[in-house]
Give the backbone structure.
Amino acid sequence: MLLVQLYNAPSNEYQTKLVLKPLSCDRKWKFIYEPLHHDVRLLSKKIPITRFLNLQVGIGHSFQLHATGWKWKLTTCLGGDGVSRIRNKTSLGLCPGVDFRFGWRADYVLPEFTGAVGTGEPLFNMNSGRLEASLDRIEAIWTHTS
């Protein structure tokens, strides 16, 4: 499958990325070419290390910088890319017949670890993530049974 991605970039109106990857569900790689930067990369699919952690590795070459290097990325399957959201209601029984119900929300970006060799990027880099939580509603519930 050939995928052409166009996205806005601060330095240019549009930036093109050509992505070539197999159509099969068990694809093990993808090839990326960015003509504006003259970069080519070969990336592995995300390799599960544990139930929640994935590792992705890749090798690339920059024709502009005349440099070859490799990258790695350790991610989790819980949040994906971008901001993820949990919305929930939690009940707490204070005593028989009296319950409190809390409506809460959490927006989070999970920590991400990356690294590279020969690409001008740091050998090890960590984004610590972010958590924003809010308590949207508190309800008091009285029940009477006879």
The chain is about 0% helix and 65% strand. Residues 1-7 have pLDDT under 50 and may be disordered.
